[in-house]
Amino acid sequence: MTPTAVIELGRQAVEVTLMVSAPLFIAALATGLLISIFQAATQINEMTLSFVPKLVAIFVTLVLAGPWMITVLTDFMRRLFESIPSMIG
C-alpha cells in the first residue's frame, strides 16, 4: 500500500465524516441562531432555553436524514472492504 493510497483513503474517510455530520451541525446551528435572535429580541438570557430546541432539531434531522446517512456510511464501508485485496497485493 503506497502512501498516496493511504492519503486518499484518509481523505475519503474525512469527506464521508463531514457529509454525514453536516446535516446535524447545520440543524443545530440554525436552531441556535433562531433561539439567539429570539433571546435578543425578548431579552431573555436563559442558557437552558436553547438546549431543548437544539435537541429536538437534531433528533428530527436525524430521523429525516438518517436513512441517507446510513446509506453513505454503508457505501463507504462496502467500498473499503472490497478494496482490501487490492491494498494488500
UniProtKB/TrEMBL annotation:
The chain crosses the membrane at residues 20-39, 51-70. Its main location: membrane. It comes from the Bacteria. GO terms for biological process: bacterial-type flagellum assembly; protein secretion. GO terms for cellular component: bacterial-type flagellum basal body; plasma membrane. It is found in: Cell membrane; Bacterial flagellum basal body. Signal peptide: none annotated. Keywords: Bacterial flagellum, Cell membrane, Cell projection, Cilium, Flagellum, Membrane, Transmembrane, Transmembrane helix. The keyword Transferase does not apply. Pfam families: Bac_export_3 (PF01313). It is a multi-pass membrane protein. InterPro entries: Bac_export_3, FliQ. Belongs to the FliQ/MopD/SpaQ family. PANTHER family: FLAGELLAR BIOSYNTHETIC PROTEIN FLIQ. Role in flagellar biosynthesis. This is Flagellar biosynthetic protein FliQ. The gene is fliQ.
